């Protein structure tokens, strides 16, 4: 039977590439999103992958959304916590709301999504949880205290939960992308990108969403059963951890 994979933020950017890679690997895929109905509908029409709208920042919405996925497609075997946002600003100007929105989505979202599926994975003796963190959670980034804190938290979450899932066949890993050419990064001013960001990347280019998706598809596979608690850096040589 095909494994059921649920990808948060799975309709655009890196998440869309992950959803497609998991489908290509033979999974039955569900892609969640927050509000961009037009993008989600275009993605559904292009790929045939089922889409579900709720916010990962809302625990009750996650529980209800996961229930709907499981009723339609079966128990979730693979969870990819990919949904993420930025609300950048220097710390002395950062508002409590900028802090809260990023923590609620990028860190608490992992609790909200993982808590409802983890008991079933343990009971069935198989599970794959893959958390999309960031190079900026590993090294810290000026103007992103909120984002760096949340993404560093994702790594701690991964390492702790890996220890709880290991003897029940549930692996938990993190992937830390560097700069990937999605809308999130293309929103950065082109001159800033060229002058400040590309020179930091030894391979001399942005990464492709598919390069992250292939890492995730491997971690989700049966072949990756001995890898848990890991953090895979996919950043073009920008930072070694
Ligand atoms: P995009 O902005 O291109 O896409 C984000 C996706 O997440 C969208 O599908 C969006 O839904 C969804 N989303 C946002 N908030 C929520 C929410 N509260 N609940 C459910 N879904 C939500 O992002 P990227 O593809 O660039 O980034 C994906 C992940 O990779 C993020 O976690 C990001 O932090 C991380 N990352 C990205 C890097 C990059 O260079 N792009 C570098 C390092 C890490 P909708 O379409 O409805 O808005």
From TrEMBL:
Protein name (Swiss-Prot/TrEMBL): Beta-ketoacyl-ACP reductase
Signal peptide extent: none
Keyword set, alphabetical order: Oxidoreductase
Top-rank taxon, per record: Bacteria
All residue ranges annotated as the Ketoreductase domain in the record: 3-178
Presence of keyword Oxidoreductase: yes
Gene3D superfamilies: NAD(P)-binding Rossmann-like Domain
Pfam families the UniProt entry points to: adh_short_C2
Oxidoreductase keyword on record: yes
CDD domains from the UniProt entry: BKR_SDR_c
Species for this entry: Paralimibaculum aggregatum
Family: Belongs to the short-chain dehydrogenases/reductases (SDR) family.
Alphabetized SMART domains for the sequence: PKS_KR
């Amino acid at each position: 039977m095909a494994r059921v994979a649920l990808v948060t933020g799975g309709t655009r950017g890196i998440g869309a590439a992950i959803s497609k890679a998991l489908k290509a690997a033979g999974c039955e895929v569900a892609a969640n999103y927050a509000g961009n109905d037009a993008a989600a509908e275009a993605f559904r029409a292009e790929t045939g992958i089922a889409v579900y709208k709720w916010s990962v920042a809302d625990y009750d919405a996650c529980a209800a959304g996961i229930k709907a996925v499981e009723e339609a497609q079966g128990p979730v075997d693979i969870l990819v916590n990919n949904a993420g946002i930025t609300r950048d600003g220097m710390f002395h100007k950062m508002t409590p709301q900028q802090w809260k929105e990023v923590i609620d989505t990028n860190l608490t979202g992992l609790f909200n999504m993982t808590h409802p599926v983890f008991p079933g994975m343990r009971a069935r003796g198989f599970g794959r949880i893959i958390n999309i963190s960031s190079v900026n959670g590993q090294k810290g980034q000026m103007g992103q205290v909120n984002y760096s804190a949340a993404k560093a938290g994702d790594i701690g979450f991964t390492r702790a939960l890996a220890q709880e899932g290991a003897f029940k066949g549930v692996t938990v890993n993190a992937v830390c992308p560097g700069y990937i050419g999605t809308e999130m990064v293309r929103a950065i001013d082109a001159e800033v990108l060229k002058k400040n960001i590309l020179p930091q990347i030894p391979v001399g280019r942005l990464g492709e969403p598919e390069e992250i998706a292939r890492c995730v598809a491997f971690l989700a596979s049966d072949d990756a059963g001995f890898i848990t608690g890991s953090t895979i850096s996919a950043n073009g040589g920008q930072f070694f951890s």
